[in-house]
Amino acid sequence: MSLPSLVPHRGRRFAITARILSAVVFTFVCYLGIGIPLAVLPGFVHGGLGYSTVLAGLAVSVQYAATLLSRPHAGRMADAMGPKRAVVAGLIVFAIAGLFLALAALVPKTPVLSLALIILSRFGLGFAESWVGTGCIAWGIAGIGGEHTARVISWNGIATYGGIALGAPLGVTLAAHHGFIALGVVTFALGALVLPFALWKRHVPPTHGERLSFRSVLSRVMPYGAGLALGSIGFGSLSTFVALYYASRGWDGAAMSLSVFGGCFIGMRLVFGNAIDRFGGYRVAIASLTLECLGLLLLWLGGTPELALGGAALTGAGFALVFPSLGVEAVSRVSMHNRGAALGAYSVFLDVALGVTGPLGGWVAGRFDYPGIFLMAAVASIVGAVLSVSLYLRFGRA
């Protein structure tokens, strides 16, 4: 390609990326707020309010339940009212959730009221996660065209994991220097500060056409969601059990393995984000799930911390493109005016997979020790790759 033609091409790609980032920045802010209380909240509920570790875990898990319940509504809202409406509603609820969290810190001597406010805050964050996350993807796609769906989903994922990665240590620092109330105040401030920018951003009107029922949309995306769920078990297993796995072996560096996983995840999305456009979602999904399986097998077999670290790196690199590669194909199975519903239905499978991985992995660890968890996840990943092959043979060559 000659230089005169290369410069406009690069300029257009930069403009497209800038438009994508203008949408997914709201996802980043939302997940930054989700990450802020993540490492501090269980300790506050258990140590500060005096509740059991079961209730402390429940206070965190309530958010995931709310996310799961609100996914279908989030997709419907983005389709019927436009993605801007979904994002704005999510940011308002996000700010209110921060307010409830701050109020919970003011009444620690009334544990029942404080816990109730925390649970309301977690519910709010769960709904905000659905509305903002689904709305931002739909907003980005509507703004630049369906041919860039993979890039929008990839950048939204980077915003998601980047927000959590920055939010968790920020929350620990805030709590250490300013107390638990600072978590709620900062979350409220984040929502209040970015809300005007969402209101100012150009509205993309909803497309008109037949709206499929959620059941119909779910049936169309189910095979792709099943592949996503199978691939997500590896991520859930690593994030939940790698610290216990390292401790059972007497190793240091569990936090490093999570950092390496996250770094490889984001690096793959940045470097190979265009692979889906070049090779198609099915092929990228097959390669990604196979690579993830190899990483999980290394974790299963890893007799040294170095091998386990390599396994975490391969798992992160493999999992990085599973969501966008299968997501592109899932969205293509419905018409444009059902795209938000398809994204919501597809994301449900991620929520369910992460929800069941904890208890399932705990059962496996009790029966076969911690390495067995990663063998289970490796088997799930390769089954996901086989499923992707079958989908490619059925739809990918049409």
Automatic annotation (TrEMBL):
Alphabetic keyword roster: Cell inner membrane, Cell membrane, Membrane, Transmembrane, Transmembrane helix, Transport
UniProt-annotated location(s): Cell inner membrane; Cell membrane
Transmembrane segments: 20-42, 48-66, 86-107, 113-141, 153-174, 180-200, 221-247, 253-272, 284-301, 307-331, 343-366, 372-393
Domain Major facilitator superfamily (MFS) profile: from-to ranges: 215-398
UniProt-listed Gene3D superfamilies: MFS general substrate transporter like domains
Keyword Oxidoreductase included in the entry's annotation: no
Topological relation to the membrane, as annotated: Multi-pass membrane protein
Family from the record: Belongs to the major facilitator superfamily. YhhS family.
Xref: HAMAP family: MFS_YhhS
Protein name: Uncharacterized MFS-type transporter P3W24_07390
UniProt organism field: Luteibacter sahnii
